[in-house]
Amino acid sequence: MSEALIQFLAGTLRAGGLALAAGHGLLSAAVLVGLGRPAQAFVALVAVWGLSLAVSRRGLSMGLFLLGATLFLFGWQAYVYPSAAFGLILDMAALALGWRNLGQAEAESQAGAGPCGACLGALAVLALGSTLLLPWDRLAAQLAFFGPTAFFAAVAFSPADAPAYVLGAAARLAVFAVFVRELARNPWPGRFETLASGILAGLVVSIVYGLALHFRGDHYLLHYRFTSVFANPGWYAEYLAVAAPFALIALARPSKLSRCFGAACLALVAGSLVLTLARAGWIAGGLTFAAAVWLYFQGGPMLRLRRPWGHLPALAVGGALVVGVSFWASGKELAAVSRPINALLKERVGNFTDSPRPTLFRSGLLIAAESPVFGLGYESYARHYPVLLATPAAWLGRYGDKNAEVFETSHNMYIQIVSGLGLAGLALWLVMAGRAGLLLWRAVRDTASSLDLALLLSLVAFHVYAFFQEMFYVPAVLFLLAPPLARAMALEGRTRPGRLARLAGGMAWVLALAGLVAYAADFGLSRTRERLSLAQWRAGEVVYEGFYPPERMDGREMRWSAGNAAVLVAPGEVELTLFSPVPQDVLLVSDAGPLDKLRLGGEPATRRYRLPDAGDGRARTIFVMPETAFVPMAQNGAPDPRLLAVAVAVRAGQEAREVPPTPSGAGGREVERGDEP
User: Fold this and answer.
1) Which superkingdom heads the taxonomic lineage of this protein's source (predicted)?
2) Per DSSP, what are the bridge partners of residue 597?
3) CB-based burial label for 103 (10 Å; 0-12, 13-18, 19+)
4) E strand or H helix at 11, and its extent?
């Protein structure tokens, strides 16, 4: 392949990536602007921040620092308001860096052209290509009915078991890849140090603020385990373990003040990791402390101490003080919790191996067995699990545990990649991570750079934790992989890759191309459905797409929709109960034609319809299109970060015929086949 052709393809991919980031950013801004004044103010601030990042050197420095320092504010799963807001931030950062990189020197533009960058780009292309396995007939209908902004809102806020979630996850990975490449290509030499300083500052703030909430008992979620402002203690432990190595940069500086600050940061991280009670965090976080001990006693250019052994008495006194305070605190009860800290720790240590993860790992591997080479689609575990578990011909249907607790991920990043992108995707990921680790290790060995050591340890901690968690689920945690990857790609761009490196990069794109061909051949999972004797990729008479898990509301079980949503229902009698806390119109349209237009407001409304049978065993789709939606967190500061529109309950088949409808509220009527609102 000629050099000119390679440059052309690289330029085309870069332009496509920036165009994707621009489209994703515009749609994200449009969705957030519709959520009220606080969200509108946030969008305006992000726009100003992005502009300063693009046009000013000082703005670049301050912008990268703030990007790292504010990560802890977005520690939620991928389909809620904080993650949608963080998506806009990443879009703006990628576009701003792309603008700054226009017209730069050719040497800088080689960053990302080696195997590390090629594997990341190929992964993004493979993830986007795997969306060909989605039900594009329904997605196209949703786009036509909902419009671009409402459809994107459904993509951004759909839970992990919906096809729209897969589409949003692939777009997020692609924007992440664009950001990493543009960060690597940027010529400013201080970008990684500034970003690392911001991450460390945010880490300290999250710990101090979180401890205040924790011991006051003001935290609203899982307050007996330390979560700071994250939504889950395990996710916060991921953040702590992967960000902790940046404290070594301060520890390795020559001034006593910096060293004291670095040591204090490590002490805060250690205590916080213990309080999260996340056992995987103890394992992954321990790498940083092992490195700190090694640096302390090894000496050398990274950490020069005149008398390292002379500090042992002070360390012994400090250790005794810490142990004494710990024993005193262990008998104290956490605020609003009736169990002391030592009892909680004893329980977690005693049950160290008691976890549902082995069952989850097995389920993920059984899903991967259906398509071991290229998988069933990026981040599609939750979508496929119920279908394959209910299908006798599937591996999961034959060997899965039907009584196991259901989760949205396999809780193992490597298994999650195999189930979604197959062995090809896993190979790309491992080559990318291995190449990045090798480049960072060489930099540490040759230059004794504390920054490169911190980035290397962060990369390793990320991949150690990945054995116990699915690291794509929380976008702010996935972002922590960006600095080491970008640094490795920047190092890669300084020298011309060798023959083996060029071969690895070429093979990455060959795998991506082969994956696209395989996904196109199984468009909409047509071949997989035929092999498993499935008329449609669904489990049961009713399938909710774009709805949150069920909740008890007014004595009945209902699900909130994430804005516009869809319900797959078996043909025949179907009964819908809808509820909205505010007056609004809700339009119901099926793939057989319009159904109804209901006026809701304060009381549930129940209606019954008959959906025709097309004769092929396929379910009918009912699109639920409410007039408005809201996010409590964005509008009044309530702790609920979901996009909520209308609550829905569905009865289908014999169940719908046996239960008489109980209409209530204003508007609505029964509609038989062929009726229109």
Assistant:
1) Bacteria
2) 587
3) exposed
4) helix 3-33
Residue showing tokens 């699109």:
623
User: Locate tokens 């319809």: which residue?
Assistant: 609
Residue 431, classified by CB atoms within 10 Å of its CB into exposed (0-12), middle (13-18) or buried (19+), is buried
C-alpha distance from residue 503 to each of 31, 220, 397, 520 (Å) = 43, 52, 40, 26
Contact 75, 636 (CB under 8 A): no
What's the pLDDT tens digit per position in 192-231? 999 999 999 999 999 999 888 877 765 554 467 888 989 8
Give residue-wise pLDDT tens across range 68-102: 999 999 999 999 999 999 999 999 999 999 999 88
Distance CA 626, CA 629 (A): 7
Nearest to residue 445, comparing CAs of 460, 456, 434? 456
The Cα 36–Cα 45 span in angstroms is 15
Which residues are 559's β-sheet partners?
648
Per-position DSSP letters for 62-123, written without gaps between them: HHHHHHHHTGGGG-S-TTSHHHHHHHHHHHHHHHHHHHHTTT--HHHHTTT-SHHHHHHHHH
Contact between 84 and 157 (Cβ < 8 Å): yes
Assess contact for 130 and 421: CB atoms under 8 A: yes
Selection from 156, 2, 147, 1 nearest residue 79 by Cα: 156
Whole-angstrom distance, CA of residue 362 vs CA of residue 369: 11
Q: Give the closest residue to 563 by CA, choosing from 114, 158, 12.
A: 158
* H-only helix segments in 299-368: 312-330, 341-350, 357-368
SS3 of 649, please?
Answer: strand
Question: Strand, coil or helix: what is 554?
Answer: coil
Dist. CA 627–CA 543, nearest whole Å = 22
Q: Residue with structure tokens 């670049």?
A: 60
CA dist 401 → 49, 363, 381 (Å): 49, 8, 15
Q: Which two tokens stand for residue 245?
A: 């190595």
Residues 220, 640: Cα–Cα separation, whole Å: 10
The domain made up of 542-656 has a fold known as Jelly Rolls (2.60.120)
Tens-digit pLDDT profile for residues 176-192: 999 999 999 999 999 99
Q: Give the 3-state secondary structure of residue 585.
A: strand
The one-letter code for the residue type at 100 is R
**Verdict on whether the full-model pTM lies above 0.85:** yes
Dig out the tokens for 166 from the structure.
Answer: 């897969």
Q: Report the residue count for the chain.
A: 677
The ranges assigned to domains in the chain are: 3-287+413-520, 542-656
